[in-house]
Amino acid sequence: MRLPGGLRSAAGAARGVTAPRRWGRVDADALPYGVTRYRLVVYPPGVGAGARLRVRAWRAWPVTGAVVSVGVGLAASVVADPLLAAVTGCLAYLGGFLALGASALPERRAVRQVWAEDPGESAALDDVVGVARVRLLGELLCAADDALADGELCESEYQGVWRCVYDQVGGLLAPDPERVDPVGRA
Fold it and tell me: Is the residue at 12 inside a domain?
């Protein structure tokens, strides 16, 4: 089932992910027992394509780096001792991890993400409100993308919508002063 603004429900796909967008992405994951998890990732407004690429590469490195590490290790085993080849593969993984981590550091710190789970029929009011906020913010950004593409928004208006959602996600991440954990810490 297709939702407004480019979101997909869990009934429509096991994993609905919006295409890469300038502002980030929104996911809808179907989990067991009828639970749906929504995740919204928002980059800081105005971030460039290179910065977004570095952040995405950083997030993909655990799997990509493992493939690179095995490939380097196998290639090195042709000309070197197996122990040296394994060390070379590990160093390739670590080197990529450090290089990507350092190059994407400022952008990684500025990225905001929030998620909410819809437990289905056993949902409490707080669960429904959290899911509705995450979905609404994701749909708003998708609609702004469509409006910009159709010429209904200019670039500055689009950036304003992006900034507003970025700030709203920051507000959702801020600690709630009325919420206190059982130990008594805020």
Answer: yes
